[in-house]
Amino acid sequence: MTVNILNPAKVYGLEHIAYLAVFLVLSVASLIIIKLTVKSDKAIDIAVKCFGGVLLALIIFNRIAICVHKENAKFLIPDSFCGIGSFGLAISCLFFKRGAYPYHIFVYLMFFGGMITTFYPDFIGQLKNGEPTSFMYPATISGLLHHSFAWYVTVFLYLTGHFRPCVKKTHALPIAVCVILVYGLFLMDALKFEDAMYIHKPLIKGTFVTWYVVEPALVAAAYGFAFLYEYLQKRKIKPAENAEETVTTENE
């Protein structure tokens, strides 16, 4: 049985390169326009909820497509860090206020996870009935779309100030990573998933990029970014305070 819609696809094939070009141009252009024109917190909050709804629709589409691909309804349950990350980020955007703890988990998961998968989607060309599938195969394109859009949303949240890194709140990330790993073990032991959260295989086949390398690196990067952000914010505040003190002294 042939499942190709067009031609068998591959990472950095013509379709993937075209997708990257269109996605990056539209993303950069829209973010620049938003940054320059949208100043209202209310407008940003509405946009965040809209993005959350779109992301939720994309991750649901992806899970349904995977169920059809693997011919098993149990795969409606997210079984990867990015699946959990996209779902959690969508729920955070829809129901949590800016600065809430879930953002300090899912923004980091999907900034790195979404970016890496957008540039190296190893599921492109996945086999169905022994044959490679096309770029527009539902389980492929839906996976690429939810990863890319989640990455876009994380950048939007940061640029608009809806998400501000905070060292204290970043403590939620390593706890969440441990919980997700335990959840992955549950999926494998109780629901008989062959693998979950890449616990038994590297993220990139044939490399050392395993969960026990990637997840500590993710946590370290998140803390490093939060420390740097807070340090730079303090550097901005001090000159302003010194200027105010100078003006006050001169007036006296």
Provide a brief overview of the structure.
By secondary structure, the protein is mainly alpha-helical.
Characterization of this structure:
- The chain has 252 residues and is mainly α.
- 68% of the residues lie in helices and 2% in strands.
- It has helices spanning 14-37, 41-70, 81-95, 103-119, 138-159, 167-170, 172-190, 211-251, and strands at 127-128, 131-132.
- The chain has a two-stranded antiparallel ribbon with strand order 1-2.
- A hairpin with a 2-residue loop joins strand 1 (127-128) and strand 2.
- Helix 3 (81-95) packs across helix 4.
- It is globular.
- Residues 1-6 have low confidence and may be disordered.
Key words describing this protein structure:
single chain, mainly alpha, 68% helix, disordered N terminus
- Low-confidence runs of at least 5 consecutive residues: 1-6
Gap between N and C termini, in Å? Answer: 87 Å
Rounded mean pLDDT is: 90
Order of SSEs: HHHHEEHHHH
* Number of helices in the DSSP assignment: 8
From the spread of the alpha carbons, the general shape counts as globular
Beta-strand share of residues: under 5%
Q: Please give the number of β-strands.
A: 2
Q: Mind summarizing the main beta sheet?
A: 2 strands, antiparallel
- Spatial sequence of strands, sheet with the most strands: 1-2
The whole-angstrom Rg is 21 Å
The secondary structure category is mainly alpha
Residue share in helix: 55-70%
Per-chain topology:
Blueprint: H1 14-37, H2 41-70, H3 81-95, H4 103-119, E1 127-128, E2 131-132, H5 138-159, H6 167-170, H7 172-190, H8 211-251
Antiparallel strand pairs: 1-2
Helix pairs in contact: 1-5, 2-3, 2-5, 3-4, 4-5, 4-7
